């Protein structure tokens, strides 16, 4: 297949002599010795000239097209997070309810421990008509859960308005007391407009006399810490200072 040609050239250049070299010569025609596989494994159902053609299925083509349109993970849109609005609204309602309950509880405790309620209870215990209606040992009826007297209404001595209602109980019966007093003019005494006891069986005991000359009044000290209840005709024009430093009158008892 291959042949070689030897060429010898001698050139005298001084004392140098070029040696001969061999140049390979290619044959005019090359033949390939690569074997052609014509067995039945290469073309199972055809021949060498007409081999069996395998056509791609449409499912594979659709899958490849879908894969080609797949967005990289770094460019995909993030999933939507669930809304937290119900959580915020629920938390706000719980906090608002707790805060409102705390304010109502503290305000009621302040009214239950006020001098107005104490003065009304003192007069109820010393009133024979109330003792006949409820029995002995008259005391405020406290709540079973919190152990506190619940007082409805408001007490605002600075603006001259007192309107409260609370329950009392005796050794025989129970009822609810309603007490309302206003100050018509600045510097005047508190006039008691409504003061009655409604028993649980419906009996009403009015503790305010209808005659204007004997309508009771509520006396307060300058700092509104001491309160007394007495008749209008016995209200003194001047007051004396007691041993405790608070003004005392003969028309009522300071509580």
From TrEMBL:
Report what the protein is called.
DUF1783-domain-containing protein
**Which residue stretches belong to region Disordered?**
21-77, 233-255
| Positions in coiled-coil regions | none
Q: Which InterPro entries match?
A: Coa1, Coa1_fungi
Q: Give the Polar residues compositional bias ranges.
A: 28-44, 237-249
Q: Which organism is it from?
A: Puccinia coronata f. sp. avenae
Q: Which Gene Ontology BP terms does the record give?
A: mitochondrial respiratory chain complex IV assembly
Q: Name the Pfam families on file.
A: Coa1
Q: Which GO terms describe its cellular component?
A: mitochondrial inner membrane
Q: Which domain of life is it from?
A: Eukaryota
